[in-house]
Amino acid sequence: MSQWSQVQQLEIKFLEQVDQFYDDNFPMEIRHLLAQWIESQDWEAAANNEAMAMILLQNLIIQVDEQLDRVSQEKNLLLIHNLKRVRKLLQGKYHGNPMHIAVIISNCLREERRILAAASMPVQGPLEKSLQSSVVSERQRNVEHKVSAIKNSAQMTDQDVKYLEDLQEEFDFRYKTIQSLEQNDKNSALIKQEMLALQAMLNTLDYKRKEMLSKIGRVIHEIDMLMSNMLTEELLDWKRRQQIACIGGPLHGGLDQLQNCFTLLAESLFQVRRQLEKLDELLTRLTYDGDPIPVQRPQLLEKVNFLLYNLFRNSFVVERQPCMPTHPQRPMVLKTLIQFTVKLRLLIKLPELNYQIRVKATIDNNRRFVLCGTHVKAMNMDESANGSLSVEFRHLQPKEMKTSAGSKGNEGPHMVTEELHSISFETQVCLYGLTINLETSSLPVVMISNVSQLPNAWASIIWYNLSTNDPQNLSFFNNPPAATLSQLLEVLSWQFSSYVGRGLNSEQLNMLAEKLVGQQVSYNDYQLSWAKFCKEHLPGKSFTFWVWLEAILDLIKKHILPLWIDGYVMGFVSKEKERILLKDKTPGTFLLRFSESNLGGITFTWVDQLENGDVTFHSVEPYNKGRLSALPFADILRDYKVIMADNVPENPLKYLYPDIPKDKAFGKHYSCQPNEVSKPSDGGGKGYVPSVFIPVSKILNDSTEPHSPSDLLPMSPSVYAVLREHLSPTAIETAVSCKLSHS
Predict the structure, then answer these.
(1) Is the pTM of this model over 0.85?
(2) Alpha-helix runs per DSSP H in 286-327
(3) Are 80 and 217 part of one and the same domain?
(4) Which residue range or ranges hold the SH2 domain (predicted)?
């Protein structure tokens, strides 16, 4: 079943999450119509390779054209219209930056996998639950409602200003008319009546000026309250969601909504500013004793300017955190002399600012590192698919400076991977007589000089962003706080859902918890130290918990990914639990388990029954990446043979736990059909016998010595048949160099 088919079967609450990240950047119609083709392409690799991304973009347009031809024949007018729009979008927005569409599709596929993994979990994790709180959603709606109301109030005040201006012009005209009359004419009863009318008009003007200033004051107060409370909370929540998304959590959204709010508030404040300027013009033409404009206008203008300064400062955000294109799922880990990308956005989207704001990127002030490459660029609305005012740095490289003695700084693994740095950005906005200096910084990054340091560096990034919402605590690892185990387990599941397409269920997470802290009554409130997670070796082992887990992630990604995504690898189960699960099953039932003693190893264990009815268990030596590079794991499961005491070779693996026939589970992943036994003369070209690798093990029931694990033996079925014809069992036993271990 395709990934998209699985998505369509989700409950409505999960489908709503899917709906959030499909928009005009990548329409859902294309995802639906081209589901299988899209899933068969390597968008993650294309996101880091412009030539590959361009080829995929061209092929995507070809696929759209083929769909367009099909629906044209069916005369589906609505679909024809939508596909033409999509084709125009793909050609217009992404032709100059094909890697952008690759990043978007890669992120959408990854987020689908995360949602599918979340849907398979019995309960939602504490972190994800907090991010999707109904209180947060209600506040978002309230902010949007209040911003819209403020915008309407500012526009209504514009009408009041126009009315006040018209009223004052009429007063000026009538007053100047009376002033131009001769002194004798001014004493007439008609003129005295006109003077009373002018006094009434002046009283109305005074009232309207006070009313006008009061309305402006209320708008300013509403903006101030909104910015100080709900909008600030919304921005902080978005930044927290970004932190969580960076370590594998739910794809964060809401920035476009924030941009809309910030932009509307800025427009309202500039509108109020123009209204105050208009009042100043009216003041120059008419003033009087008790005039409220000279008293109140300067205070209101100062408040408006103050709010504009704060609004602009808060609107300058890092939209996409620093990330090496070679490691898109390990953001904030930067390798010296390797390019990284980072994107910034100004949430106040005003056309007057397009190409007018130049942003400068620097690294923190310890002078140990400098940034090479283009580090000054102008923000614009043309590069982003959604037309936001943004700038993306794509060619920055961190370079380590030499010390005064001529050598580079200390690059010990612990010091490097726990030392935090910050990429800073500064710019200046000049608009309508205002000059505002803006600064912002990335989340803390870890610098490495060797790829071997990446796993520990990524552990630091996980721990920091899990434990704190402080965006700039560069001394965090001087005294790192403990983390709540339940939240850490949730983040570990995200590592699997984001990196290898399937998260961990509660049983798998319980096994990880036991490995970290041993048997506990409850993991919910347990506080785990940083040292326990990443620095102290596991009991009896020469490696840490995190190194062990990272090796498993690497194994899955490179060698058993399809099996893992299908859910056929139980993986995280102890030997004790393994036996409990298998003991009552049909002989030949097996399960797949990650090795606890070998880094990046996977083994399988099956249950068997002795003649006396006793149950026995057999486990093979874990297969590591070296052996799996020679033979796919699915083929190993298909072709695996054991030689029993009577030298009858057989495949003991019959059913994947709990009761799935082996070929039904793994058949689609076999690289080829198993070769049938044939004579040498029946073989391949030039009289050679076709050969395949077959994993063979030997079980000696009467041996009291501990058995060594099995190895792979290059032996074809036909060769084995010939050996059986010409060699004794003892000779075959000698040829089988490795044996199966009982465990």
Answers:
(1) no
(2) 293-315
(3) no
(4) 564-666
